[in-house]
Amino acid sequence: MATTGQSPSAEPRGPARPRRRWLPFAIGMLIGLALGGAALLYMQARTTLQSIQQPDARRAPTPTPRSIIQRIIGGGELYPTQPPLPDALREPFTTLLIGVDTRPDPGEGVRSDTLILVRVDPVAKWAAMLSIPRDSVTSIPHLGRAKINAAYSHGYANAAALYGPGTTPEAGGAALAAEAIENFLGVKVDYTAQVDFHGFAALVDSIGGVLVDVPKPLLDAEYPTDDYGVERIYIPAGLQVLDGRHALIYARSRHASTDFDRSQRQQRVLRAVLDQVRARGLLDNIATLPQWADVLAQNVRTTLPIGQLGMINGLAGLARELHGDRVLQFSINPLDVAIDYEDGSDIYWNAADVATVVSRWRAGPQAASQRGRIQVLNGAAVAGIAGKVSSYLRGQGFVLADPGQAPQVYEHSQIIDYTGQPETRQRLASLLGIDARYIQSSPAADAPARLDRADIVLIVGQDYQPRWAGE
Fold first, then answer.
1. Exposed/middle/buried for 41, CB within 10 Å: 0-12, 13-18, 19+?
2. Which of 424, 386, 390 is nearest to 405 (CA)?
């Protein structure tokens, strides 16, 4: 290797090199640009989300809360500083999902074709859907007794008269639908969210379609088209990737099965939408939020406070936890709820059975795997005790038959399983603290006769505890 013949120490020194004072400044500029771009995306998304949020016509307007300060952290994710969760995500809440059928001909009106009440527990990390058949008859404010899907139409057509000047038809429809649901189920509806069916198809397309496990083929030879014709639809069984149009058809088809099967398909599609949103991280990444928010803005209206991006952040965190058995499905249907009588297509459901399903829906995962109907018999010779215990158990999520009288007085309370319901039997025994000696996995020869479609009979004996009666 060629050398100069001089040692390094002998090399003449040149002028001192200037320190790279520009480097921290350049890095600061890059960080500033990145944060500025993220902030721009955030503001764009927040503006779009605020356009989706509509006032709740049932309540007087309140001042808009200050936006939550956001902090941008690497990876494009948003994390709220204070508070850690919006108030709406600190305790269980309900949201009424309304699928709106808007016809091309304005003279045909607007109706709510789908009503699903969702209960979300953001702390325990679960959600439960409850489908309400559109032909269910209930008391609707300002209208009287009518089919429950008439509430949205009436509120839509009379929004300003019912809720005051400036109320939009969509807000009026959602408000009256919520009031009708509250009357029917006896629960508070905290928020509403509505989407037009064609908008729903666009939403599904915007997330790349959905993967649905179709349990049995769907054949509808007369599915109605927008031009008032019909078309033949066939969706085979098995895992299917459905685009927006076919997801809507699968959820809405009514010729191939009952309206109650249709509600199960609707819930299946909603679970698939949640899975896809979670898989794509659409609520996590600030870079994808504005594009998806634009699709939402065109098709969705809700009273949820999503104008706060902290709310979206909280919902995104919750969505990551809602896997498998953390999303529960319930419905008002003839297998679980007796029909008192029918008048044409009008359905009058048994109020006690409706209350039982609502109790299971409210109880969440602890009642989801529970099967079997329980009848409580008074074997304690205490007036009204069977009815009081039935009410207590119904509040714990059990399905109850009408209470009755035991054939004799019993010293010890007993559980008798007539149809083999081990999970329900064991949970009932654990809740009441009944000793294993007084639990019959099958009826003994001297067991009371099984009545009123009961799977399990609970005989309340003289050892009952006051808490069983809500005391």
1. buried
2. 386
Contact criterion met (CB below 8 Å) for 384 and 471: no
Residue with the two structure tokens 């409210």 = 362
Q: Is 458 helix (H, G, I), strand (E, B) or coil?
A: strand
Which residues have C-beta within 8 Å of that of residue 74, sequence separation ≥ 6?
none
Kind plus residue range of the DSSP H or E element containing 426: helix 422-432
**By C-alpha distance, which of 41, 47, 38 is closest to 73?**
38
Which two structure tokens, joined as six digits, stand for 445? 């020869």
Q: Indicate the DSSP class of residue 420.
A: -
b or e along 401-423 (b: 16 or more beta carbons within 10 Å of the residue's beta carbon)?
bebbebeeebeebbbbbbeebee
Measured CA to CA, the distance from residue 305 to residue 46 in angstroms comes to: 11
The Cα angle at residue 366 between residues 363 and 368, in degrees rounded to 5: 85
Give CA–CA dist 266/260, Å, rounded: 10
> Rounded to an integer, what is the distance from CA 335 to the centroid of its chain?
21
Render pLDDT for 347-359 as a digit per residue (tens, 0 to 9): 999 998 898 888 8
Counting every residue written for the chain, the total comes to 471
Q: Which residue has the tokens 């098995």?
A: 238
Tokens encoding 89: 């995500």
pLDDT at 309: 62
What b/e string do you get for 226-265 counting C-beta neighbours within 10 Å, with b at 16 or more? eeeeeeebebeeeebebebebbbbbbbbeebeeeebbbbb
Return the number of other C-beta atoms located less than 10 Å from residue 211's C-beta: 13
Helices and strands per DSSP (H, E), number in the chain:
13, 22
Distance CA 292, CA 269 (A): 19
Instruction: Describe the chain by its helix, strand, coil percentages, rounded to 5.
Output: 40, 25, 35
- 3-class state of residue 391 by DSSP: helix
For residue 89, the 8-state DSSP code is G
CA distance 402 to 382: 17
pLDDT digits (tens, 9 = 90+) for 167-224: 999 999 999 999 999 999 999 999 999 988 888 888 899 888 999 999 888 888 888 8
